[in-house]
Amino acid sequence: MPMELQAEKRTMVGKKSNALRKHGLLPAVLYGAGTTSLPLAVSQKAFQKVLEGAGESTLVKLQVDGKPHNVLIHDVALDPITGTPLHADFLAVRMDKEIRTKVSLEFTGEASAVKNEGGVLVKVMHEVEISALPKDLPHNIPVDLTKLERVSDRILIGDIRAPQGVKVIAEDDDVIVLVEAPRSEEELKALEGAEAAAPVEVETEREAKLKAEAEKSATGEVMGEK
Fold first, then answer.
1. pLDDT average per 10 residues of sequence, the chain (226 residues)
2. Are the beta carbons of 93 and 71 closer than 8 angstroms?
């Protein structure tokens, strides 16, 4: 059952929206299927709860002055310092039409290749694009890490099972997560040495260029000196 959120129409727009935030309200807008763009205001606390529970890929029942709308939280503007929501976009959807969106991958279990063999877990994907009817949209898709038993094992798109009615839009051989062999102390030292030497090489190359230009200048080969 979709999470519900109460909203009301607002007339305060632009910079005036700051007054809403001071009273614990979040400026928002509703648009999409079967509706014209409609400025709204929702409770900041209630929105935060729905955002944490539904995310941006799960259907939400938005009540606007008593009228229900099936929506997705389409976009959220955040304060760059506090991370607090400043504005939200609600996308109205048709229940009989499939939509494409991205959902998070939820990694569960523990890879024995990491625990017992000291392998390094590398997550190549953290989300995946899907297509489904709004009622079938999942909050996330689980990925079972216990299948990773040996170093070099990997889990592909074709290895995961999407919920009924959900189609994953990716190639079956796309890698989601894999286990790499641990780096030896020698490899780590070599890597650190290469990183430390990189700036020196750049400086040496620059000095060589300046030296070459100086030599040309001394022999009258610099442009304009014949």
1. 89 77 92 90 94 87 92 92 92 94 94 92 96 92 96 96 95 96 71 61 52 53 43
2. yes
Q: Name the residue with tokens 């990694």.
A: 107
* Number of residues written out for the chain: 226
Could you state, in order of their start, the residue ranges of all structural domains in the chain? 3-93, 100-180, 184-226
Q: Decide if 117 contacts 136 (C-beta within 8 A).
A: no
Domain 3-93, architecture per CATH: Beta Barrel (2.40)
- Of 75, 47, 56, nearest to 139 by C-alpha is 56
The pLDDT tens digits of the residues spanning 178-217 come to: 999 987 667 656 667 666 665 544 445 555 555 555 555 5
Q: What is the CATH number of domain 100-180?
A: 2.170.120.20
User: Considering Cα of 81, then 82, then 86, then 89, what sign does the dihedral take?
Assistant: positive
